[in-house]
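Hi R.,

Quick one: here's the Inner membrane ABC transporter permease protein YcjO sequence you asked about.
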Amino acid sequence: MSNRTLPRLLQSPAVVLLLIWMLVPLSMTLYFSFIRYVLNNLRKPEWMTPALSNWRGFGNYEFVLKSKDFIFAIQNSLLIVCSILFLTVILGVLIAVLINKSFPGQGIVRVLLISPFFVMPAVNAVLWINMILDPVLGLQGIAVGSINDLVDGLRAAPGVGWFFSLWPELTPISFRATQTSAYAVIIMVTWQWTPFAILIFMTSLQSEDQQQKEAAILDGASTWSQFRFLTLPHLGRPIAIVVMIQAIFHLSLYAEIEIVSRGNGNKNLPYLIGEFANNNIGAASATGIFAVILANIVAIFLLRIVGKTLME
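And here's the predicted structure, written out as tokens:
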């Protein structure tokens, strides 16, 4: 037995199990997407079984493409994912650079900053939509009401009353509404995933070359110049990795959208799959294949970015 045969034999059970774990669900989804498979249909009871005799071809894909929510779900998926990526990267870089300096209580601050990442998505959504973003009982409603009361009191003050009389009365935003529910999802997911970016960037900053920064200081480089030409290039690879990992995860968001809006004006592809899966398994499977294609396109695009960054 050669030196390579034994390691391959030892690895083969895990490889076979992984292939089964991946290929069986994907194959079933692909098969269901080409047949008429409806869970509850009294007119056509034969459609209630996933038989090959119910072959429909590309009919399910055509049905999904003509669905009024399909294009909107893709657009909303890209809006949510791109917004979260932009905010988490910006906030992650700024906070990581800020806490990279030595100060009293640095360890406690780092633990507190990372802790939101360990909150379950459903719990995160419930806390934000009820305790913070609620226009009546949440912190938003309390803050807006307090500001309005303060402005009302200052309107009667001598000397400055005329100025505050020009201020309009603030109205709390209902983040459960059709137009704003996507923004609520972006806010709460950004809060939860920014610590992940902070952790990656903070780890990378530990290996930054301090001699280069000292030389830049001696040459009279400003703080912004050091950040622009030394710190940001050093964070290029971690930023690319954070973008790739988060994009894959955020394309499958479901719990936050369900809790915030129940899909009212705020749907992505996973939520659309859930709606179809209540009865029409064929359409849900076709939507799942579209989601796989979209995820692969995004992953390939981001992997090219990561590969290009690593080669530089």
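Residues 281-311 form the longest helix (31 residues).

Cheers,
M.
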